[in-house]
Amino acid sequence: MTSPVAPDRAQIHLVNNQTEAHPFCFVCSGSNPMGLALRYELQTDGSVNAKFLGHSALEGYSGLLHGGVIAAMLDGAMTNCLFARGIRGLTAELKVRYHESVAASEEVFLQAWLEHEAHGLYRLRAELTQSSAVKASATGKFLKQHE
Question: Which of 53, 54, 80, 145 is the most exposed place for a label (fewest CB within 10 A)?
């Protein structure tokens, strides 16, 4: 496990990377009129979290949030966790586990945290909860983006 960045500095990293690296991101940018506009917030333990209320336009099966949208939100949470550390990472591997269906019209909570880093490769974990139950989880490997 890695140590968290100083909270004030991490929040600056998070906002700057969202603005500069993801100005029109489907998941986390408020500039994309078709997007989710998730606002990930830094937590004291170095993780990030967000909440989201879906709607029928994001359904797969009737009343259920589409699995691809769920995967995108989990991937976005892990990306924003790296942003808070001043790291721009590209998804190298994403494994999603769907535990239960997710109601499209009920609020969901997302959380992501960094588990390991070595030589520009980062391993993260994320969870989506609804009604206090983990409905989906993911692990991801990210490569540091070279500018």
Answer: 53
16-25: Cβ within 8 A, 24+ apart: 17/80, 17/83, 17/86, 17/88, 18/80, 18/83, 21/83, 21/88, 21/145, 22/79, 25/76
Tens of pLDDT, residue by residue over 53-96, are 989 999 999 999 999 999 999 999 999 999 999 999 999 999 99
Break the chain into its structural domains and give their ranges. 7-144
The span from the CA of 4 to the CA of 100, in Å, is 31
Q: What is the CATH number of domain 7-144?
A: 3.10.129.10
